[in-house]
Amino acid sequence: SLCSFSPTGPLPTATIRLDREDISCIGRIRRLALIHSLYLQQNRIEKIENLDSFPNLRFLCLAGNRIQRVENLQCLPHLSALDLSHNLIQELDTEELPRSLQILDLAGNQCTQQDGYRDLVLAALPQLLLLDSQPVHGNTAEEEAGGGSCSSEEEEDEELPELRIPFTVDRDFLVDVHRELAGRARWRRTMSLEEHRARLEELRERHALL
Strand locations in the chain, DSSP E? Predict the structure, then answer.
């Protein structure tokens, strides 16, 4: 379990990487408030649990495991990006998804075949920017932030940071997303994902292996 990987020495200040370690469960460990990124892809994890040890987590990757239910995520109020692709999730309870999510990937799960799947997820997550690597259009947060046009000259002239998305997307896709959503206030919230720049290539490799 994840417990067996708890180090006795100093911890990294931001990221824990335990992908491909044959981990079968997420055990209870001591509180790690400095951790913002947790990589647990390509293991044998069957249940989402004990994540309250990471109260400031912003990025969580559980792709390629054996998870059957989305649960126990409400303890992560700052979670921005969640990768649960290629698990065993047959039915999705959107009430279990943190409302802070901006990027969500459930590709490769049976739940994506549910009637009205995309509409249900978008209704539950007003801040969502990307769902299964596809851009989100016209949700409530976007309309409240000024609709489809710039709400002020300041926003129009504001230089947007280059978006670093921790999912399998190519450069042309990122350019298209910039053009489509440029000038909208929601882009300010994507700045929290800048810290994942170095991880993009790794996750591309992971999806290629799947």
Answer: 15-17, 37-39, 59-61, 81-83, 103-105, 130-131, 134-135
